[in-house]
Design brief:
Elements: H1 3-32, E1 35-36, E2 39-40, E3 54-60, H2 66-76, E4 85-91, H3 96-108, E5 113-116, H4 125-133, E6 138-141, E7 155-158, H5 161-178, E8 186-192, H6 198-211, E9 217-224, H7 229-242, E10 248-251, H8 254-266, E11 278-283, H9 286-293, E12 299-302, H10 308-319, E13 327-329, E14 334-335, H11 340-345
Parallel strand pairs: 3-4, 3-5, 5-6, 6-7, 7-13, 8-9, 8-10, 10-11, 11-12
Antiparallel strand pairs: 1-2, 12-14
Helix pairs in contact: 2-10, 3-4, 5-6, 7-8
This protein binds beta-D-fucofuranose.
Length: 349
């Protein structure tokens, strides 16, 4: 064999060995990550948990308000290992795309249940269809989804937000009558929550139903203040600059109310049942109830955040094969000066 041929032979053998090693390594890698023909095997991706635990994936809207914090605590307090659960919790930081990402992660991990509070009502059909095809029941809490096919979720647990809005209107009318102002022109501004959120839609609709029964009520403006204190303060400052006389603030959560109070004070006006601006608020968190007891907030419409235990009860029933309802409303009331102090004395849930 000539020298050239020996050289060619050596190169060919070397290339073949390199190729063989590369293919062997690739094969190991593919086997390692469970890929076959590009399809990941689902069982390889599931969170390694004690098989006896029920795995619950929870996608939470964010941490925008005191109410949200209480809602999150009610979830984390029930879905514990002691209660037989493995909780995978995701905070979407008020972004729908983060929620969709979290839901897809739960699906790929093949959780047993998905529990979530959708930031806004639209845009969920596709990802909920994927959960349905994966056989994962979806339990909605707090806010609703606007889907064509309601079989995409098993149950919704939350507040009757339209009723909350009506209660705000009814309690305002009661106080105005008590003050002999039932025929006065009443100029109203509304700090709304996140646009498209079920709470915002319902509270706006319910209050407007009552306002339309009072020709002397004028809603000067309603504005999205995103359920946050900062935005509530910013928007109330703008409204105070724009409108000389505001008689009533309807604030769709206490966090926005706290911000609005700063702006009202800075504008040299007084908030309160007997002040320049009467305030009707929503959520009835503890620090707001103190302001109700002091007459700064005239009435606060309770929004019950303790939905974790209701979601857990639904899952317990589903685990036993028992039927569950499509809707569960949590109990709520209205706080005024007459009952706020008593509520503050009651032990925390
Ligand atoms: O009023 C607010 C939170 O959807 C009922 O969202 C919930 C609302 C609540 O940011 O504080």
């Amino acid at each position: 064999m000539t020298e050239n041929k020996r050289e060619w032979f050596r190169i060919t053998v070397t290339v073949l060995i390199v190729l063989a090693v590369a293919m062997f390594a690739a094969g190991l890698m593919l086997l390692g990550c469970g890929e076959i023909n590009g399809e990941k095997k689902l069982e390889d991706m599931r969170t390694p948990v004690d098989e006896n635990l029920t795995v619950v994936g929870v996608s939470q809207v964010g941490s925008e308000s005191v109410w949200r914090t209480a809602n999150t605590e009610s979830i984390q307090n029930v879905f514990t290992k002691e209660n037989g659960y493995f909780l995978i919790f995701d905070n979407a930081r008020q972004k729908q795309e983060n929620q969709i990402k979290a839901l897809r992660s739960f699906i790929s991990q093949r959780v047993d249940y998905i529990v979530f509070s959708p930031l806004t009502e639209d845009g969920w059909d596709t990802v909920l269809q994927e959960a349905k095809e994966a056989g994962i029941p979806v339990i909605l809490i707090d806010r609703k989804v606007n889907v064509k096919d309601t079989s995409l979720y098993t149950t919704w647990i939350g507040s009757d937000f339209t009723r909350e809005g009506r209660m705000a209107g009814t309690v305002l009318a009661k106080y105005l009558t008590r003050q002999g102002r039932q025929d006065d022109t009443i100029r109203i501004v509304v700090l709304q929550g996140t646009e498209g959120a079920t709470a915002t839609i319902g509270r706006t609709r319910g209050f407007r139903e009552v306002a339309q029964q009072h020709d002397n009520w004028i809603i000067l403006e309603q504005v999205d203040a995103e359920f946050t204190t900062a935005k509530g303060e910013e928007e109330m400052e703008r409204l105070l600059d724009k409108y000389e006389d505001i008689d009533v603030l309807i604030s769709q959560n206490d966090d926005m109310t706290f911000g609005a109070l700063e702006a009202i004070d800075r504008a040299g006006k007084t908030a309160g049942t007997d002040g320049d601006i009467m305030i009707i608020s929503f959520d009835a968190v503890k620090n707001a109830l103190k302001l109700v007891a002091d007459g700064v907030i005239t009435a606060d419409i309770e929004c019950n955040p303790h939905q974790g235990e209701y979601a857990e009860t639904v899952i317990e029933r589903l685990e036993k094969g028992d039927p569950v309802a499509k809707l569960y409303f949590v109990p709520e009331t209205v706080y005024t000066k007459n009952n706020a102090a008593t509520a503050l004395e009651e032990p925390e849930d």
